[in-house]
Amino acid sequence: MKPALIKSPLTYVLADGALTCEDAKGGTLWRIELAAVRRAHWSASRAGQSLTRVLRLTDGTQTRAIRQHLYRRALLGGAEDMAFRACIADVLRAVMAVQPGLDVESGPSAGMALVLRVLGVVLLAGAVAAPVWALVTGQDAMAFLNWGIPVTMIGLLGLALMRTYAPGRGVRTRTPAEVIAEVEGV
Fold first, then answer.
1. Degrees (nearest 5) of the Cα angle 25, 29, 17?
2. What is the pLDDT of residues 5-37, one digit of tens each?
């Protein structure tokens, strides 16, 4: 299957309790033992007409991803999309077979949540520092009032980002069967 329009096709092989990713020439790019998987993370995000879906498997030493990027939603249900869905369902079934208790996390990845949290801190710090800076530089009261509302909004956005993406928030845990049902459109 092709992970994106301009990428070369990748082949995912499930054999001997492991998932192997091969390039178009048959060379092995990576391999992960399914019995060693400690964490599974599923994300699907949309931006305009683009759709990106990723299944990440982590075994403690490596994180490997099966991803698909569709540049238009009209491509949903096409041959590449159906191959991706079947691949994800097969991988999750194989993970369920060797690790029945492993759940799949959904939501923002840990890295993205950290970036958004840090952005929230920076926005809030800027909103707190702006009035102090205005007083230190001696700006008049009218200028202070003119940018008071935008700075307050920036501070509130910072608070919202910090709260929304706090550690452990926004992450759902589901069974692999629930993710399979979502992927297969059941």
1. 110
2. 556 788 899 999 999 999 888 899 999 999 999
Residue length, the chain? 186
Q: How far apart are CA 6 and CA 130, in angstroms?
A: 45
Structure tokens at 137: 């530089």
Q: Which CATH class is domain 11-106+172-184?
A: mainly beta
**Distance from C-alpha of 25 to C-alpha of 10, rounded to nearest angstrom:** 9
CA distances 62 to 32, 37, 105, 108, Å, are 8, 9, 17, 19
CA dist 135 → 41, 68, 122, 130 (Å): 48, 51, 20, 9
Instruction: Note the Cα 104 to chain centre separation in Å.
Output: 13
Task: Give the predicted TM-score (pTM) of the model.
Answer: 0.72
Main-chain phi, psi angles of 132, to 5 degrees:
-65, -45
State how far the Cα of 14 lies from the Cα of 86, in Å rounded to an integer.
12
